[in-house]
## 1
Amino acid sequence: MSQVWSTPHRSTPVDAVVALPGSKSITARALVLAALADGPSRVVRPLRARDTDLMAAGLRALGVRVDEDGADWLVTPGPLRGPAEVDAGLAGTVLRFLPPVAALADGPVRLDGDPRLRERPNAGLIAALRALGVAVDDGGRGRAPFTVHGTGGVRGGAVTVDASESSQIVSGLLLAAARFADGIDLALAGGVPSMPHVEMTVAALREHGVDVAATDRGWRVAPGRLAPLDRVVEPDLSNAAPFLAAALVTGGRVTVPDWPAATTQPGAQLDALLSRMGAEVERTPEGLRVTGTGRIAPLVADLGDVGELTPVLAALCALADGTSRLTGIGHLRGHETDRLQALDEVLTAVGARVEQLPDGLVVTPGPGRAALVDSYADHRMVHAAAVLGLAVDGVRVSGPEAVTKTLPDFRERWAAMLGDDVLGADVSGAPAGVGT
Ligand SMILES: O=C(O)C1=C[C@@H](OP(=O)(O)O)[C@@H](O)[C@H](O)C1
Ligand SMILES: C=C(OP(=O)(O)O)C(=O)O
């Protein structure tokens, strides 16, 4: 039995200020870099959610101390050790950031996770580790479960990496590379999605005093120490997406406080993307304010840099007044679920017409209809269903607990935005499934 969430329907304009907890991506980098530094670091206002708790637990398994200090995490590095077991859950960040750290441990580290984690692509990372002198036993699958045979050190040096399926492969290698004997000289074999996330990695490394340089084909990290650092985590701008979308759908107004003036988070691009979809977007002293104008314009865009915004943007496209075309997102087939397939099914169930492209979606809105849709264990599919449900009466989603991945109290925050006292609607036990 899985839960079913009846998403709240709302025709009146929302008017809310929605504060959001810390960024998943910044918290993950802060933890890993703190673990590799040569003294204790503090992570201030980290995201506490399944993905980041798994990252902390994985580092603890490798011998790092991660203590709670109020709402902060205090990270005290220690000798990295094996044998160890790491549970990556469904977290791409744990899957791709911890193996290069595990390679520095003094024994074998086995990494596994949810059934879907075992389908998420990782061959590019495993091949790169081998080329850098690390033995990895993956049974030839290129996926979890696999064992990294740490020997207490990594040679490092020049390596060509296929990161076409995930930018996290690049980030994982760069994060640990200063601790490799020869650092790393990473050349990309082809394209890489989600470039802002690689820029986030480079920026975070530099804040720890690491020497990172962009090269013709990739990045070079010099071997050296990582200085300890107290880091304040920015709010998660990708998780702002469904709340800001609610302003467009209801013709209302949503403000997200503490919106950073400058950031490498891809969610920063919501500003421009939502303007293109018809919203008025302004930076106010209170935060980023998005005001719906009553019209949702279709979107034609390459979302390759901002793939994780796709589920919410695609939901808006299903409510727009024309056909949208979202491209550059073939790698979303390897995310928490095959997101192009999942969005096709969900948007079709609520009345839109969807065409799948090899690297994207064409979405044509239709008359909305009630539907029971699946979350596919994907937090951002729950966000998408919530956005659809504002406009289409009777959208229910099974498996809403997937939101624990990055925003455990998503439904409470959604209800609060709408001015509801409780969860916004009933949550009941019912068999998982898709259909009306
Ligand atoms: O480095 C990161 O923190 C992330 C990189 C991106 O991964 P992909 O490049 O696999 O899309 C993004 O989608 C994910 O949510 C977080
Ligand atoms: C793709 C995502 O997550 P992960 O870090 O597990 O890849 C996401 O949060 O949208």
Note: The first strand starts at residue 2 and ends at 6.
## 2
Amino acid sequence: MKYHRVLVEAIVFALQQIFNENRQADKVIEQVLKSNKKWGSRDRAFIAENTYEIVRWWRLLKFVSNINCVKVEEDALFWQIFGSWRVLQGDKLPEWNEFSKLNPKEILARKEEAKETRKIRESIPDWMDAIGEQELGEKWDGELHAMNHQASVVLRTNTLKTNKLDLKKAFREIGIDTETLPNVADALVLPKRANVFSTELFKKGLFEVQDAGSQLIASFLDVHAGMRVIDACAGAGGKTLHLATLMENKGRIIAMDVEDYKLQELQRRAKRNGIGNVETKLIEAKTIKRLRESADRLLLDVPCSGLGVLRRNPDAKWKLKSDFLEKIKQTQAEIITNYSKMLKHGGKMVYATCSILPSESEAQVQKFITQNPEYQLIEEKRTSPANDGFDGFYMALIERK
Ligand SMILES: C[S@@+](CC[C@H](N)C(=O)[O-])C[C@H]1O[C@@H](n2cnc3c(N)ncnc32)[C@H](O)[C@@H]1O
């Protein structure tokens, strides 16, 4: 494969930003791609895919490159890591100075050696591997392996504006193939990746990009047109928009969060989707108390470790710290205990996480139910990267007596 030096420079710059400036991979890649308007779609895909894959395989790549420092700082080492990655992909490296120290045979031999140690082979920090094994036992191997594969692009049809089959046809007309997914009503999956955000179909609000597992959560809440619904950790509204379509744009949704910029993004998305039944509310000291017993349905899509969506956010492997996990569990316990008071008696709520760890999910719900007997667990569901190819979500449907 022939590389263009400028593209590899862009990848090295992106990696520096992600690892040394502690910036989010998706934001860095977006900025890098915007920096040169002349790059075509292949160049853009080359930069984005190689950067994401190098982040995903960071620990393994350091190992096969024989780089032992904790923090990689020099440009030269980033070039070597890129070179090792391409060797693992079967490429013959160009005779550039930057690759002169790399020995492909040695790289491949070290890859064989890495197979013996899961945390190196699967490229994950020690503490995360230990927690995964402790909480999931034998299942951890399979989930971890599955989370190292690139996730598919999945769309959710906006049924307020179109239907799945018409959307599929409209994509076909612009040369993009999509497939339906059994058991996920409005989902279309792309067998081949494409930039769907630049299409007119997206600008018209005919779909949102949303993992299949995530699409099951709003449906799990059993909402109906005309209800009063609170989405208490709404963020930029992935699930709020879905709730609004399930409610046929009727009734009222209060979408709340502690971050105002996310709610502003939610409003922009709601407008594009033709949604008019959502009101956003920034959470302040008395917000929860004022809304006591006011909701027919309540969604608690709580902040979590994100250990179910590593396929999409591989940089979280290196950015997450074990003490954060402890703190976030505390926040989850506070949210389920305090926010559940917003539910009417006879109403239903869903507690959801994008984590495969039971301590953030089943265990939180069990503890809450035990301490608050007026709430009753109706049903729990999990999606699994290993078993169904979806991201790893957890959802619990709970009723208030
Ligand atoms: C998993 S994300 C939500 C994703 C969103 N529901 C979606 O579908 O796109 C969790 C959200 O909880 C918010 N959050 C963090 N602490 C919170 C708190 N104490 N109360 C409410 N929301 C909180 C975060 O800002 C974040 O947007």
Note: Residues 90 and 132 are 31 Å apart (CA to CA).
## 3
Amino acid sequence: MTAAAPAYRRILLKLSGEALMGGGAHGIDPDVLERFACEIRDLVADGVQVALVIGGGNIFRGAGLAARGMDRVTGDQMGMLATVMNALAMQDALERLEVSSRVMSALKINQVCEDYIRRRAMRHLDRGRVVIFAAGTGNPFFTTDSAASLRAIEVGAELLVKATKVDGIYSADPVQHPDAVFYSRISYDQALREGLKVMDTTAIVLCRDHGMPLRVMNINESGALLRLVRGEDIGSLVVSGN
Ligand SMILES: Nc1ncnc2c1ncn2[C@@H]1O[C@H](COP(=O)(O)OP(=O)(O)OP(=O)(O)O)[C@@H](O)[C@H]1O
Ligand SMILES: O=c1ccn([C@@H]2O[C@H](COP(=O)(O)O)[C@@H](O)[C@H]2O)c(=O)[nH]1
């Protein structure tokens, strides 16, 4: 029996920077990086065009640095540079698996990687290359969740997948509230009304206003991403509604 064709032609996958730490306190666990790269390779092998945004929470977050006294904009710039490091690490891991990829940065750092140019990004995707969008939106006071929504809309992704450490969206943070209720399907407005912190508000509003379907799923569940792009109901789906 042949496998089902993927349900999506092009997706944007937002990977949590923190998930890259594995069991560590910060930085990148090479085994975890390789595991995530294998999951992405399987999507590409299935014929899905994959754009990636990786967070920077495993290295720096501007808000955290500002809380310790640093100028917020400087902290955010360090956070954005942290996402470039994660992007380079992922590019390296993908290319070791013979998956062609490009890093495109919203901040100019073009001795290291390409600048973000939308039409070039779309061309890379059309050619089957994984495009890793680095440095978030290029502006302070934003997050990589917002960058993921923005880029997903810009490049015409059919689905934004937020791959994180929990199984999906709950009525409260399940890490702190183990009795929280799981939502398999929820509207953008309900997520905003209930102030659910799994994805930042700007990112959800962008998805809502531009009709970008959003899935939140657990990246640590092996094979789940592939099943998702093949149409299985994995994690939580955020769409229009009440
Ligand atoms: N209502 C909720 N449902 C699910 N998860 C929630 C909720 N509220 C808070 N969370 C937390 O949100 C986290 C998801 O965000 P994640 O760690 O991916 O954040 P991020 O800031 O995007 O990551 P990073 O900065 O590391 O890239 C989960 O680990 C979970 O503990
Ligand atoms: O558009 C953006 C995206 C990110 N930042 C800064 O980077 C860090 C890391 O991103 P996370 O989404 O938290 O993983 C973020 O905390 C910001 O400080 C940014 O300034 N602009």
Note: Residues 163 and 219 are 5 Å apart (CA to CA).
